[in-house]
Amino acid sequence: MNRRIGSSITRRMLLAGASSAMIVSRSSAQGPSEVKVGLLVPLSGLYARPGTVMREGAEMAVDHINAQGGIKALGGAKLKLVVLDSGDTTEKAKNAAQRMVAQEPDLVAASGAYLSSFTLAVTEVTERASLPVLTLSYSDLITDRGFKYVFQTSATAGSQARQALPQIVKLAETASGRRPKTVAILTDNTAASVASAKSMRDGLLAENGLQLTVDETFTPPLADATPLVQKVRAVRPDLLFFLPTVISDAKLLLEKMNEFGLGQGKVPTISFGIAIAEPDMLQTVSPELLQGVLTCVASWGAKGHEALIAELKKRYKEPWMTQNAISTYGDMWVIKDALEKAGKADRAAVAEALHSMDGGPSQYYPLGEIKFDDKGRRLGAGMTIVQWQSGVPVTVFPPELALAQPFWPKS
Predict the structure, then answer these.
(1) Of 6, 53, 237, 386, which has the fewest CB atoms closer than 10 Å, so is most exposed?
(2) Closest of 305, 289, 324, 402 to residue 43, by C-alpha
(3) How big is the CA angle at 331 (ends 330 and 336), to the nearest 5 degrees?
(4) Can you point out the beta strands (E) in 219-272?
């Protein structure tokens, strides 16, 4: 009797074990139920606003990807966004990256970290952890270090300057009837601004027949813009290249320029980077002071993004779609495609998929292909010129993405 009971129990245990093994086997074959991707951006301090918009873009993309069936190569696994705050200093960003790789060992890829100086520090950490990172940060140094796990979706700062300067000179000449001859540079000392200014100083201005008459670098945040603007007023250049990365610095400089009779187009002002076109500018600077100001950025809400722009406005009450939202949105889709190509949630496989990816014409970044060179730079990456028009910064270049025609401010 006991033997029969024991035999019956043993058979049930074996059957249960076999059934469990089959379930585990099927589950393994289908892949994980979710795949974690990281977003390391500033959510506190000076740069919290752009970091928040990057999170919004990433959240929209993850929701869209999951609603469309997730990662099909992994049995429909859903993306799970893990958001970390990089803070507002290079040291905080590096510490956040260290926490990210320690606390989230199952991340397969990440996007971040806004400022180029933050990204340079963060990717030193993620490279050692073999974690693929996509970034919109501009500095040429990011992908000049021989790293295998860093992918730059934007055009580099040097490339943006080379692409933008001839267009700006052409615009000035067409609109004003004369070619500009002199320029001033006011730049902060963050990595992307430094790279843009360096490219101009190292021959690009001379190639375009421009003479540098004022060249000033400052450390953000500015306490007083007066000394800088006085130097610009003394020479009154044909163009002012204006490279702040903190909104409060842009505000101080614009207000001081207006006070000294240089604002509202009296000295045409061209920026590089997003600070001058952030929505928060309108909280402290009047649309009149901003009218006509141009800025050259990695990306922007443009023709073809109308539905995304409308959703961002409705869902998050954002007035327009900056590079931070559209580029980070695009990053999530690139990671999704890399996971489809890799066929497994593995960092090395995702990195290899990114290196060998050939995704055709870019949809969420201006121009070029969804394909990376051996440095991790996106092939053919273009740039966008945005201009403040009637209280809104709109895409005016390249023509195929433009939502408005550019104009030259009247002096």
Answers:
(1) 6
(2) 324
(3) 100
(4) 239-243, 269-272
Amino acid at 272: F
Distance CA 335, CA 345 (A): 11
Structure tokens at 341: 């190509």
Crossing angle of helices 323-342 and 306-316, in 10° steps, is 110
3-state secondary structure of 242: strand
State how far the Cα of 346 lies from the Cα of 338, in Å rounded to an integer.
Answer: 10
- Cα separation of 43 and 51, whole Å? 5
Instruction: Confirm if 157 and 116 have CB atoms less than 8 A apart.
Output: yes
Task: Write the pLDDT tens digit of every residue in 108-131.
Answer: 999 999 999 999 999 999 999 999
Cβ 252 vs Cβ 202: under 8 Å:
no
Q: Listing from the earlier edge strand, what are the strands of the sheet with 133-135?
A: 78-85, 34-41, 107-112, 133-135, 150-152
Q: What is the mean pLDDT of residues 23-31?
A: 43
- Rounded to two decimals, what is the model's pTM? 0.85
Q: 């021959």: which residue's tokens?
A: 203
Cα dist. 189→52, 106, 231, 356 in Å?
A: 23, 36, 18, 35
Mean pLDDT score, 344-373: 97
Please state the length of the chain: 411
- The DSSP line for 30-65 is H--SEEEEEEEE--SGGGHHHHHHHHHHHHHHHHHH
Nearest to 331 by CA among 115, 61, 76, 102: 61
Structure tokens at 8: 């019956």
End-to-end CA distance of the chain: 105
Which is nearest to 340 in space by CA: 327, 361, 354? Answer: 354
| pLDDT, tens digit, 9 for 90 and up, residues 60-95 | 999 999 999 999 999 999 999 999 999 999 999 999
Distance CA 258, CA 271 (A): 16
Residue with token string 């860093």: 150
Q: How far is CA 208 from CA 91, 158, 183, 211, 385, in A?
A: 38, 15, 11, 9, 18
Q: Which two tokens stand for residue 304?
A: 């073809």
Q: What CA–CA distance (Å, rounded) separates 119 from 86?
A: 10
Amino acid identity for residue 38 in this structure:
G
Backbone angles phi, psi at 322, to 5 degrees: -80, 175
Q: Which pair of structure tokens corresponds to residue 14? A: 């074996």
- List, for residues 287-309, the tens digit of each pLDDT value: 988 999 999 999 999 999 999 99
